[in-house]
Each structure stands twice: as C-alpha cells, then as structure tokens.
Amino acid sequence: MPRTFVWHPTRGPKSTPKDEPATGGKVQITQVRSEIGHSETMRLTLRALGLRHHQASVIQQDTPALRGAIKKVRHLVTVTPVKE
Questions:
Q1: What's the total number of domains in the chain?
Q2: In a domain, 58, yes or no
C-alpha cells in the first residue's frame, strides 16, 4: 500500500498569525496554495469561500462564520482587509 501522506517538519509556516475578531467590514481572501493533497472537507471549505482555482481572490463580508471557515484552511489562503 503506498503512503499517501508524509509529514515534513520543515515545511509550512513557522507560526500562524493571531486570530482577529470579525470587524464587520470586508476582507479579500486569496488562495495561495493548491487544494491538491488536502482533505475533501478543506476542498469544500474553499468552494464555500468562493475560491475555485489556485491564485483566485474573492471579497467577502467579514463575519464570525467566515472567520471560522478561514481558520480551517488558513494554511492555504491569505486574508487582507479591504478599504471601503
């Protein structure tokens, strides 16, 4: 049986930024890593966020539910606040 997952301690971010509470404004979410090799729930979360392809960006209203979805895939996306 082939191994499908190999954990590499040197890959990935050294630390993740602190969770920020929802501000009620808008945020831009950009997918920076591919969904290939990740679980089906992570893929579905990216689809729910509106991200269909690698390097795609969407602007969403910042809510606590959105922050929860972003937290689930935080290693695949970057989040930046949008000036209105």
A1: 1
A2: yes
State the CATH number of the domain containing residue 53.
3.30.1390.20
Single pTM value for the model: 0.76
User: What distance in Å separates the CA atoms of residue 77 and residue 70, rounded to the nearest whole number?
Assistant: 8
pLDDT tens by residue, 44-54 = 999 999 999 99
User: 10-30 burial by CB neighbour count: b if 16+ within 10 A, else e?
Assistant: eeeeeeeeeeeeeeeeebebe
Helices 40-49 and 64-72: crossing angle in degrees, nearest 10, is 140
Let me know if residue 53 belongs to a domain. Answer: yes
Distance CA 20, CA 1 (A): 42
